[in-house]
Amino acid sequence: MDIDKLESAEQLRDDQRELAEVIGLDAYKKLVRHYGGTQLYIQQADSVLKDLRDKELNEKFDGSNYKELSREYGISEMTIRDIVAPKRRELRVAPLEGQLSFND
């Protein structure tokens, strides 16, 4: 059966109708095509924003600016350290500017 035969949210069960009304019928059809029959987890807004904040923090982190980032984001230096730990490891093993490697 083709999902495009669905003409209105009124044709859906109550739980599915509510979803279609929230996101719109075209978006609902798209969800059905791509994710129909699977479980789909949608993060809460706080989690989405935290992920964005952490990505931004890692981009701004230079290896020594814990205090500045702590003030800018209103979180502790310890939390900053936890968030940037992977980037910190990456910076530690990166060659210094102008440093030659055995492959050069």
Could you walk me through the main structural features you see in this protein, from its secondary elements to its overall organization?
This protein is mainly alpha-helical and 104 residues long. The chain folds into two domains: 3-35, no CATH class; 45-91, Arc Repressor Mutant, subunit A (Orthogonal Bundle), CATH 1.10.10. Helices cover 60% and strands 0% of the residues. The protein contains five helices and no strands. It has helices spanning 14-23, 25-35, 45-60, 66-73, 77-93. Helix 4 (66-73) packs across helix 5. The protein is elongated and about 65 Å long. The model has no long low-confidence stretch (mean pLDDT 91).
Describe the structure in brief.
The chain is mostly helical and 104 residues long. Helices cover 60% and strands 0% of the residues.
Q: How would the blueprint of this fold be written?
A:
Layout: H1 14-23, H2 25-35, H3 45-60, H4 66-73, H5 77-93
Helix pairs in contact: 1-2, 4-5
CATH architecture designation of the largest domain: Orthogonal Bundle
Poorly predicted regions: none
Total beta-strand segments? 0
Q: From the 3D structure, determine the CATH topology of the largest domain.
A: Arc Repressor Mutant, subunit A
Distance between the termini: 61 Å
SSE pattern, N- to C-terminal: HHHHH
Mean residue pLDDT: 91
The global form is elongated
Any descriptors?
elongated; Arc Repressor Mutant, subunit A; 104 residues; mainly alpha; 60% helix
